[in-house]
Structures are given as C-alpha cells and as structure tokens.
C-alpha cells in the first residue's frame, strides 16, 4: 500500500479538497481500495466524508498515536492507497505523519506570500528524506503569476504539470460529500483531477524504482 500525505504548513491551500478528490479519482480509476485519514483537528475531511452517499473511499478514524497501526491494518487488508490530510500549522507532530508517507504532495497557491511560506514545509519534508511534489491550486486562468510560480517552485523540486484552477465547482461539489469528478465528470476541473492522479501515480512508481535501484 502507498501512503500519500497532503501537507503545507500554511492553511487555505486546498489540502482537504485535494485529499478527497484524489481519493475518489483513485477509486474511480480502479486503483483501490482507497482509504482517507483526517489528522486535522478541524476535521473538514471527516465532515465531507460524513456527507457522502458512496461507501468509498472508506474513512479511517486514526489518531497520531495509532496512525502506523491503522496503516498496517489497511495494508494487510489489501488497500492500494491511503490519503492523509494534515492541518496547516507549525506543530512538530505533522512530522510523524510525514514519516509514514511514500509521497508528500505540497499544494501551493500561486501568490508571493504562499511561495515565501512554502519553504518551511519543504525543509520539513526534505529533513525526513521523503519524495515530494508541488501542485498549484486555486490558480487563475492565463495569469502570469501561475507561470512564475511554477518556475520558482521547480527550482526546489518537482512541480505537477496538472494545475488546479480556481473554479466554484471545487467547493460546491464538496458540500454534499462529492467531488468534481462525480458532479461533472466531463468538466475541466474533473480533467485536472484525473491528470493530477496520473501524475501522482507516476511519481509513486518513480520513487519505488529509485528505492529498488538504491537497494540493489
């Protein structure tokens, strides 16, 4: 089983939204079973899942103390992926979640303030020697800042070619426990989610191959 952690010490960058969307995209792509775990005290992901009519992905109520045990149970039961949402804070405990990751996704808004703030998250992830990738969220169509943000982030790590643009359907789809890939499967936002999931899988595979090569 592969564990994907959504992390950024800055809040308001769509960690919860991406966690739910990627988990659903993975299930619909046949890459499940998939589980989601909410380690944010605000419990936004848990509240979203409570509103879902679909039974998948499943929600696991894990604390930081029993996170490893819960992940082991999922792996033993044949789960393909676990997606973990984290809070936007400077708490050291987030490092415990990153410890469990096979890949850390760092959502970043293309703004000067967000770009300046992301360095602390990168430092924490690199200190743990975990593979990571940036994904731009809430981007404005045709905005020069989006291109500039991708260039700036690429100097520090891999940047997803899939950009999540700012549209109302992201928020509106999650009000009743769904995602844009369920409310409008042929829409532009859904296409971005599918592209992002393809990218995430490619990064997971690349990381696995690198570890195998290093161990050989």
Strand and helix map with partners:
Layout: E1 2-6, H1 15-28, E2 34-38, H2 44-50, E3 58-60, H3 67-76, E4 81-85, H4 94-99, E5 103-108, H5 112-127, E6 132-136, H6 144-154, E7 158-159, H7 168-173, H8 180-183, H9 188-215
Parallel strand pairs: 1-4, 1-5, 2-3, 2-4, 5-6, 6-7
What does this structure look like?
With 216 residues, the chain is an alpha/beta fold. It has one domain: Rossmann fold, CATH 3.40.50. It has helices at residues 15-28, 44-50, 67-76, 94-99, 112-127, 144-154, 168-173, 180-183, 188-215, and strands spanning 2-6, 34-38, 58-60, 81-85, 103-108, 132-136, 158-159. It has a 7-stranded parallel beta sheet with strand order 3-2-4-1-5-6-7, sandwiched between helices. α1 (15-28) packs across α2 (44-50) and α1 packs across α9.
* Low confidence ranges: none
The fold-level CATH name is Rossmann fold
CATH superfamily: P-loop containing nucleotide triphosphate hydrolases
Query: What's the CATH architecture?
Result: 3-Layer(aba) Sandwich
Treating each run of at least 4 consecutive H or I residues as one helix, how many helices? 9
Distance separating the two termini: 21 Å
List the secondary-structure elements in sequence, H or E.
EHEHEHEHEHEHEHHH
> Approximately what portion of the residues adopt beta-strand conformation?
5-15%
* Main structural class: alpha/beta
Rg over CA atoms: 16 Å
Mean pLDDT: 93
Please give the order of strands in the largest beta sheet.
3-2-4-1-5-6-7
Instruction: Give me the count of strands.
Output: 7
How would the global form be characterised? globular
**Percent helix:** 40-55%
């Amino acid at each position: 089983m592969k564990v994907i952690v959504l992390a950024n010490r800055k809040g308001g960058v769509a960690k919860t939204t991406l966690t739910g969307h990627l988990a659903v995209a993975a299930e619909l792509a046949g890459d499940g079973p998939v589980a989601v775990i909410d380690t944010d005290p605000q419990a936004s992901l848990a509240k979203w899942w409570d509103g879902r009519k679909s039974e998948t992905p499943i929600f696991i109520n894990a604390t930081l103390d029993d996170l490893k045990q819960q992940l082991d149970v999922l792996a033993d039961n044949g789960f393909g992926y676990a997606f973990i949402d984290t809070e936007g804070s400077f708490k050291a405990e987030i490092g415990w979640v990153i410890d469990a990751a096979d890949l850390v996704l760092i959502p970043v808004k293309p703004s000067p303030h967000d770009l300046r703030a992301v360095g602390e998250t990168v430092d924490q992830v690199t200190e743990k020697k975990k593979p990571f990738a940036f994904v731009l969220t809430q981007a404005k169509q045709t905005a020069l800042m989006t291109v500039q943000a991708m260039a700036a982030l690429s100097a520090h790590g891999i940047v997803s070619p899939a950009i999540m643009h700012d549209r109302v359907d992201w928020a509106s789809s999650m009000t009743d426990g769904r995602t844009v890939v369920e409310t409008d499967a042929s829409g532009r936002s859904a296409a971005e989610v599918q592209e992002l999931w393809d990218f995430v899988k490619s990064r997971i595979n690349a990381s696995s191959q690198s570890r195998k090569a290093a161990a050989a």
